[in-house]
């Protein structure tokens, strides 16, 4: 595998990992939003 192919492979894996991590974090935030719904404070 030459340097160019290795670089493109690492770039694609890096972008895929980043998108996967962001997707998992968004699922966690949705779950937390359902567990702890926002309540307005009454002043």
Largest sheet: none
Overall mean pLDDT stands at 94
**Strand proportion:** under 5%
Question: What is the succession of H and E elements?
Answer: H
Question: Which blocks of ≥5 consecutive residues have pLDDT under 50?
Answer: none
Helix/strand-derived class? mainly alpha
What is the radius of gyration? 19 Å
The number of helical runs is 1
What's the N-to-C terminus distance? 66 Å
Shape: rod-shaped
Number of strands: 0
Residue share in helix: over 70%
General description of the model:
There is one protein chain. By secondary structure, the chain is mostly helical. The protein has one helix spanning 3-35. The longest helix has 33 residues, at 3-35. It is rod-shaped and about 65 Å long. The termini are far apart. The mean pLDDT is 94.
Summarize this entry quickly.
The protein is mainly α.
Index terms:
43 residues, mainly alpha, 1 helix
Show the helix and strand layout.
Elements: H1 3-35
């Amino acid at each position: 595998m030459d340097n160019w192919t290795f670089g493109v492979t690492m770039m694609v894996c890096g972008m895929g990992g980043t998108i996967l991590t962001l997707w998992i974090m968004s699922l966690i935030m949705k779950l937390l939003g359902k567990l702890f719904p926002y309540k307005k404070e009454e002043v």
